[in-house]
Design goal:
- Strand 1, helix 1 and strand 2 form a beta-alpha-beta unit.
- The protein has 11 helices and 16 strands.
- The strands form 3 sheets. Strands 11-12-15-13-14-16 form a 6-stranded mixed β-sheet, sandwiched between helices.
- 45% of the residues are buried.
- 26% of the residues lie in helices and 19% in strands.
- The protein binds S-adenosylmethionine.
- S-adenosylmethionine binds next to helix 8, strand 13 and strand 15.
């Protein structure tokens, strides 16, 4: 195999930005380096194919939601066909070298996170490269609510913590694009919990937080939404505190309010609704593990917001109607809130189950019941951010 000349270490880099929307990009490697690269590429709208026999749970979740294509096998010659850009991130120098050589021959720019000096392209430095590093020996955990997905919806304090982190422990519903912007060398721990799929046990997450902090590291636990809204944040706080590890809490924008809001549905409205309740739908009414008083919720006049309730939507809607909510009460189901694929489906309580099925609604979704749904504008204007340009509304 002939080897194409590789760029020299001393070659001057020419800064340029790539507009990758809709363009094929191939990421070889499904570990944390591949995840990190993919997170940024998907946020940029690239059409990403990941080639790897196995991937971390966060990448599996993205493949499951259609955010990327996953080719489940080792890299093979020809995989870069029609690509505009490639990332060689297997961590195996022989494979990464072969990818880089193939890319060079095909005139496809290629980044090797493990060997940037031999890459034909390097990611631009992130804002996080300059902040002062924390003193060693002062290990601690910062529990950060990352918001519902759009990287712009994290708080300033959360962003500051990320920019100083030594290790970031991430969930699959957190703002992935922020992972792509971490300083080089920051450790990434994938603590995704996939619905009915792979999941890092909570005890192991707690243990990792404590272990890294005790080693003197600044650990950011980056969670989706707010850490204390169905986020198991308290369990992590208690585990760290019991181990003598200091914890700072940075609240986040919860999907329970933000996702309906971005679809044009306010959870309260003057003169219409003076209450809203947020409920977990992960177990159906009547289930022995259910802690929800569905009869009380059925009697409410106000807004009901259901998280983790795709699978049990029909059973929950039936319980609400049984306990007094009119069958014609409007419902809005919002999936993939704040992302490029955000979608709103409108229906009524009596038709919720069939609409979910007919529209092939998949998690993550927030659904909202109540008169506030009628307030949503006919066509919700897409946010200025191009990443949200594909939002669409469907009536069930
Ligand atoms: C385990 S709960 C975590 C909630 C999170 N702590 C919060 O405050 O938003 C996960 C559920 O939140 C909802 N969710 C989170 N992000 C979402 C998004 N971007 N779009 C739609 N639903 C979302 C879905 O109901 C999902 O099943």
């Amino acid at each position: 195999m002939s080897t194409a000349p590789l760029p020299s270490t001393s070659a001057t880099l020419h800064p340029v930005g790539l507009r990758l929307q809709g363009r094929r990009v191939v990421v070889v490697g499904g570990g944390s380096a591949g995840y990190r690269a993919t997170a940024g590429l998907v946020h940029a709208g690239a059409s990403v194919t990941v080639v790897s026999p196995a991937v971390v749970p966060a990448l599996e979740a993205m493949a499951g939601s259609g955010a990327l294509s996953w080719v489940r096998r080792p890299y093979a010659a020809g995989d870069l066909a029609d690509a505009w850009y490639a990332v060689a991130a297997t961590g195996d120098p022989a494979v990464d070298g072969a990818v880089a050589d193939d890319a060079e021959r095909a005139r496809v720019f290629c980044t090797r996170p493990g060997a940037p000096e031999t890459s034909s392209a390097q990611p631009a430095p992130t804002d996080a490269e300059d902040p002062p590093r924390p003193e060693r020996g002062a290990g601690r955990v910062v529990l950060v609510g990352g918001g519902p997905g759009d990287p712009g919806l994290i708080t300033v304090r959360g962003q500051q913590a990320l920019s100083r982190a030594d290790v970031v422990v991430v969930d699959n519903l957190g703002p992935r694009a922020l992972v792509a912007g971490l300083r080089p060398g920051v450790g990434i721990v994938d603590a995704s919990k996939l619905p009915r799929g792979r999941a890092m046990p909570q005890e192991e997450i707690n243990a990792r937080l404590v272990e890294h902090a005790r080693a003197g590291r600044l650990v950011v636990r980056l969670k989706g939404g707010d850490p204390f809204v169905f986020g198991r944040g308290m369990e992590e706080l208690v585990a760290c505190t019991a181990a003598g590890v200091p914890v700072e809490i940075v609240p986040g924008v919860t999907s329970a309010v933000a996702v309906p809001g971005l679809a044009g549905v306010p959870v309260t409205h003057r003169g219409l609704t003076h209450e809203f309740v947020v409920v977990s739908g992960h177990v159906p009414p009547g289930h022995p593990l259910s802690l929800v008083d569905w009869s009380a919720i059925g009697r409410l006049r106000g807004t009901v917001v259901v998280l983790m309730g795709v699978e049990n939507a029909a059973a929950i809607a039936a319980a609400l109607v049984e306990h007094g909510r009119p069958p014609g009460t409007p419902v809005a189901v919002v999936t993939d809130g704040t992302t490029a694929t955000q979608r709103t489906v409108r229906t009524t309580l009596e038709h919720l189950g069939t609409t979910m099925r007919d529209e092939d609604v998949r998690p993550p979704a927030v659904w909202v019941v109540g008169e506030v749904v009628r307030l949503a504008a006919q066509d919700v204007p897409a946010p200025a951010d191009a990443s949200c340009a594909a939002q669409r509304t469907v009536r069930g």
